[in-house]
Amino acid sequence: MKKKAPTKQGAAADATPAASSPAAPSPTSAAGGAEAQTDLAPVVGSNLRRLRTRRGLSLERLAQISGVSRAMLGQIELGQSAPTINVLWKIARALEVTFSALISARTQSGALVLRSGESKILTSKDRSFSSRALFPFDEPRRVEFYELRLSGGAVENADGHPPGTSENLVVTAGTVEIDVAGDTHKLDTGDSILFEADSPHAYRNVGRTEAVMYLVMTYAEEIG
């Protein structure tokens, strides 16, 4: 997923203000997607503060190892900004936790239906890439399931995930190229790929229409 090389950037450049209404591509309405993303701000803020302090890291130190500015980290912890998916991946990698450890809101156990209209959607800064979690935000987990959407002609670069992480991806609409380990793999509708995701990789939509993919992310062990 969706991360460029870590660089220190201003909070305004990489975080979506919690009060804004981004029109992320999704099966639901744009307003519903924006509301869901906004709802994540306090959850991410609380989790970030807990995970950072548990590791004895100051905001300054976390900024150094993640490449996310101290100002942005502070805004996220206060629930004032909903970070982009790129920023969340940088933070998760720096804290050595799963992605879901940052976005999970612990709730009671039991079966849970995830309604399309209540989807939690994260986007890239330019909104060309979106990721919809297809698992409950009840607790951090070793296996995560996502719906990915990539605009025509768009490219989404991803930093390497923690060692031992694998991605199993299937394309359900469009044609996508996956760059990994120095090789490029072209996937048409119905094709799938499994690869080790602990090195930088990229998703490229070579068509003119939106591509849709489903991704199963598996971590080497329970972390976070």
Write the layout of secondary structure elements.
Elements: H1 11-14, E1 15-17, H2 30-54, H3 59-66, H4 70-77, E2 81-83, H5 85-95, H6 99-103, E3 121-123, E4 129-133, E5 143-150, E6 155-158, E7 166-173, E8 176-180, E9 183-187, E10 192-196, E11 201-205, E12 211-218
* Main sheet overview: 6 strands, antiparallel
Report the β-strand fraction as a percent range. Answer: 25-35%
SS element count, helices: 6
CATH architecture label of the largest domain: Sandwich
- The fold-level CATH name of the largest domain is Jelly Rolls
| Top CATH class of the largest domain | Mainly Beta
Output the CATH homologous superfamily of the largest domain.
Jelly Rolls
Percentage of residues in helical conformation: 25-40%
Structural class: alpha+beta
Strand segment count: 12
What is the rounded distance between the termini?
A: 19 Å
Approximate shape: globular
Mean pLDDT metric? 79
Radius of gyration: 16 Å
SSE string, helix = H, strand = E?
HEHHHEHHEEEEEEEEEE
- Give the spatial strand order of the biggest sheet: 3-4-5-12-7-10
Q: How many structural domains?
A: 2
